[in-house]
């Protein structure tokens, strides 16, 4: 028992070190967005979920909120990567969907997703290597009932286009769920969260090193183009620098559309 615990601890520590090394010393290269994703994630794909569990807050809450509001149908997880969101949803909820699509441009992460689906026996899940801003469903598939972006919107260069595309894919009354890092505008609207100068200045530069683009337009754009069902603006520590810097802002948004043509 003691040896098993020690082995688990050592494996966890090695996994953490591999990710930290990749984040700190691996330069992101490539002429296209897909090439840059592959460059960044290849060395850390197998260790991705364990480290991100402490970095990417609010995913479980978003998935639970979406599952509670959903009546099944078709779920598209845009930028779904390793398929971790499906695991958070749980077997029963996954099987309640007619079809689930995990759409991502990053081949190394999708390989992890494929293994996960095979191990869990999720036969209604399709792994798709495609751009979230342009991907089109199979002919005759029907409209999407649930569409999520879980810490993927800030990694999509043309995220405006990705949200507009999501709106076009969603059926009337369909659900959109988003959780991501962001910063507030310098002068946010009444009732919205405000962030310090240091938060607004430091975090976009910090995350841009890994090609993650924090924006002060995410939340206003979502509120302008979708009917809000829920919005939570929160803060969370970043591993290893949480004691030195202010917590990073993140938000969870769930919305819907009455008519995608409007």
Could you characterize the architecture of this molecule?
This protein has a seven-stranded mixed beta sheet, sandwiched between helices. Mean pLDDT is 83; it is low at 8-21. It is an alpha/beta fold. The protein is built from ten helices and seven strands. The relative contact order is 0.13. Helix 8 links the parallel strand 4 (144-150) and strand 5 (170-181).
Topology:
Layout: H1 2-25, H2 33-41, H3 48-55, H4 59-69, E1 73-78, H5 84-89, H6 91-96, E2 97-104, H7 107-120, E3 125-129, E4 144-150, H8 159-169, E5 170-181, H9 197-208, H10 218-225, E6 227-236, E7 248-256
Parallel strand pairs: 1-2, 1-4, 2-3, 4-5
Antiparallel strand pairs: 5-7, 6-7
What keywords describe this structure?
7 strands; 262 residues
Neighbour order of strands in the largest sheet: 3-2-1-4-5-7-6
The portion of residues assigned to helices is: 40-55%
Q: What is the H/E order? A: HHHHEHHEHEEHEHHEE
> Counting H and I runs of at least 4 residues, what is the number of helices?
10
In round numbers, the mean pLDDT is 83
Biggest β-sheet description: 7 strands, mixed
- From the spread of the alpha carbons, the general shape counts as globular
Low-confidence stretches: 8-21
The SS-based structural class is alpha/beta
Strand content: 15-25%
Number of strands: 7
N/C terminus separation: 61 Å
- Radius of gyration (CA) equals 18 Å
């Amino acid at each position: 028992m003691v040896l098993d615990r020690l082995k688990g601890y050592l494996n966890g520590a090695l996994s953490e070190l591999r990710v930290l090394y990749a984040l700190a010393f691996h330069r992101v290269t490539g002429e296209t967005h897909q090439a840059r994703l592959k460059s960044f994630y290849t060395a850390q794909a197998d260790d991705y979920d364990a480290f991100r569990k402490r970095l990417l807050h609010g995913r479980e809450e978003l998935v639970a909120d979406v599952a509670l509001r959903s009546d099944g149908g078709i779920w598209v997880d845009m930028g779904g990567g390793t398929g971790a969101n499906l695991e958070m949803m749980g077997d029963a909820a996954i099987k309640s969907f007619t079809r689930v699509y995990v759409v991502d441009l990053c081949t190394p992460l999708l390989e992890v997703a494929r293994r996960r689906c095979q191990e869990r026996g999720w036969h209604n899940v399709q792994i798709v290597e495609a751009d979230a801003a342009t991907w089109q469903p199979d002919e005759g598939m029907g409209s999407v009932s649930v569409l999520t972006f879980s810490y993927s919107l800030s990694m999509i260069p043309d995220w405006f286009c990705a949200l507009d595309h999501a709106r076009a894919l969603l059926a009337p009354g369909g659900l959109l769920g988003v959780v991501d890092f962001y910063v507030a505008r310098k002068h946010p609207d009444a009732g919205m969260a405000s962030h310090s100068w240091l938060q607004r200045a430091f975090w976009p530069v910090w995350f841009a090193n890994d090609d993650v683009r924090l924006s002060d337009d995410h939340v206003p754009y979502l509120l302008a183009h979708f009917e809000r069902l829920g919005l939570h603006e929160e803060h969370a520590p970043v591993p290893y620098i949480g004691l030195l810097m202010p917590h990073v802002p993140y938000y969870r948004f769930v919305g819907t559309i009455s008519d995608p043509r409007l």
